[in-house]
Amino acid sequence: MTTMRAVRLREPGPPGNLELVDLPVPVPEPGWVRVKVGAFGLNRSELHTRLGLAEGVTFPRVPGIECAGTVDLDPDGILAPGQQVAAMMGGMGRTFDGGYAEYTVVPRAQLIPFASKLPWETLGAVPETLQTAYGSLTTGLDLRAGQSLLIRGGTSALGMALTALAKDMGATVLATTRSPGRLDALAAQGVDHPLVDSGTIADAVREVFPDGVDAAVELVGTPTLPDTLAATRVHGTVCFTGMLSNEWIVRDFYPIGYIPTGVRLTGYGGDASDLPAEVLQGYLDKLAAGTVPAGPTTVYALDEVPRAHDDMEHNRVFGKLVVVI
């Protein structure tokens, strides 16, 4: 096999700029590994790339900051063919071609081995979402059992993963949605206090926790960050992780006026090295056992990537968008 199917972004612009093309199967150099892609999840950062908002991207480019698959060729003989791996970050889909393809070549350091009998549509939804959720709760928040956690943007794929992990850690979870029709879905995911987000939810949060929550993850972006800070107790922590609003700059930032007295503001952005293999394996094992919920997924074929991007951009679907090869 000398050629493969891939989705390539011709240049920034509308979903139609994502084109299904035939490309040579990439050949890995020493230190790199060729992965046969089983599935990949779609991420907001890839939307930012398509819209021309991401820095350091050259075009044309095969996008995709993550994938799940099997080792096809390791020229150094360190990873055996057929080994299941997750790949993510490290320049994938930005400085070199990423996961929107039948095969991708990545640095070995960006691979996390695992073993699972879960279907590819489930495995493809996990890597980057789990890495970000795990890092936000541990590095970003140092969340502990018995604490309260607010997730601003709870119906996103990352919001769902945060809920699953936080509940497994023993936290009480509050999560928001802009749609009243999705409150039941949040509850079904394990959220203790689903909240409708009208733009300001601090008062509603303090009706449940009068002093404010112990911790919060901001997934919407800078438009809601001040209100999320206002919902957090003194000595509590807010971790800025996502930007579903596509807005991440705080203009004319005056810390004393912006951050409530005594509330801590952190951020999180991780890489493959921030997701230990045992954490990935443990999470997959819990998914297989049904002890943590998988969350809803919408599955597409490779030639449906433009439609999937359009759905993601306009928030038409609930949960993770996954492409199965």
From TrEMBL:
This protein's species is Phytomonospora endophytica
Keyword NADP part of the UniProt annotation = yes
Name of the molecule in the record: NADPH:quinone reductase-like Zn-dependent oxidoreductase
Query: What Gene3D superfamilies is this protein classified in?
Result: Medium-chain alcohol dehydrogenases, catalytic domain
Name a GO molecular-function annotation. oxidoreductase activity, acting on NAD(P)H
Q: Which UniProt keywords apply?
A: NADP, Oxidoreductase
Show where the Enoyl reductase (ER) domain sits.
Answer: 13-323
- What InterPro entries has UniProt attached to this entry? ADH-like_C, ADH-like_N, ER, GroES-like_sf, NAD(P)-bd_dom_sf
One Pfam family of this protein, by short name?
A: ADH_N
Report the domain of life of the source organism.
Answer: Bacteria
